[in-house]
Amino acid sequence: MARHVTDFNGILLFRRDYAERDYLVKFLTQEFGKKMFLVRGAKKRGFKMTADILPFTVGRYVGDIADEGLSYIRTARETRQFQAIGTDIFKNAYATYIMSLVDTAFPDSQQLPDWYHRVYRALELIDEGLNPAIVTNIVEIQLMPAFGVAPQLQGCAICGRTDLPFDYSESYGGLLCQQHWAADPRRLHLSQRTIYYLRQFSVIDLDRIHTIQVKPTTEHALRQLMDEIYASQIGVHPKSKRFLDQMQTWAPKLMADPTDDD
Ligand SMILES: [Zn+2]
Is DNA repair one of the keywords UniProt gives this record (predicted)? Predict the structure, then answer.
């Protein structure tokens, strides 16, 4: 089994207990795709890299990279944490979901330099305070092809027209123009605003986003649309998504003014 010692850039996807003193840490690396690392002695007091393998850390490390199986981290060169994500339970939940989706979408060791950059940017935007629900929608839409679902969003899936109102059809795998709405009695009846964002988000460059304002009703419709496509066409529902769903149900209570008696 080939191994070599080299520098790499990594986004920590998750870490989990391994042995009594060790952690398994999964990184999305810029150079080698996703890799699982065994970090020996990481739970011992005085361990030097404690801060470098916290959740929501990105940085530059030196590792012993294996083509297959476990790799090892030798040292951390320069790391930083997404502070706001680390301390805000909502940002935390969205960021965790994004990382679990990316982990599910690709096999380990497949080179993903483009996705390394996109995940980095998505985390940066959430950390900076952009609406994490919207950043998550963008990642969900752009990940669909990796899950084998590439919706036709350029024009009508039947005739290609782009000048009429659209709706979304799961059976046709994309947009239908108004003339072809009858072709799918189970079309999703989306608003034109929701369709607009769906199309925009599928091609938007995360590097070019600095602000996004989406009405709450549209945000809700996009969430439902993503849930529908992920449930019925992709069949992926990570544990982190279940937590996010639960959070939505208690979020209004948490955010209510505590002085407000009702
Ligand atoms: Zn058509």
Answer: yes
What is the 228 CA–ligand 1 centroid distance (Å)? 22
Identify the pLDDT of residue 87.
95
Ligand 1 center to residue 166 CA distance, Å?
9
Distance 149 CA to ligand 1 centre (A): 20
Which pLDDT band holds residue 252 (cuts at 50, 70, 90)?
A: low
* Per-residue pLDDT tens digits for 94-122: 999 999 999 999 999 999 999 999 999 99
Q: How far away, in angstroms, is 178 Cα from ligand 1 center?
A: 7
Q: What is the DSSP secondary structure assignment for residue 54, as one 8-state letter?
A: S
The widest CA-to-CA distance across the chain, in whole angstroms, is 68
Nearest to 136 by CA among 217, 241, 255: 241
In this structure, what DSSP letter does residue 32 have?
T
Q: What phi-psi label fits residue 173: left (phi over 0), alpha (psi between -120 and 50 degrees) or beta?
A: left
Cα 165 to middle of ligand 1, angstroms: 10
CATH superfamily for 87-244 is Recombination protein O, C-terminal domain (1.20.1440.120)
Residue type, 239: K
pLDDT in tens, 74-94: 999 999 999 999 999 999 999
Q: Which CATH superfamily is domain 3-81 in?
A: Nucleic acid-binding proteins (2.40.50.140)
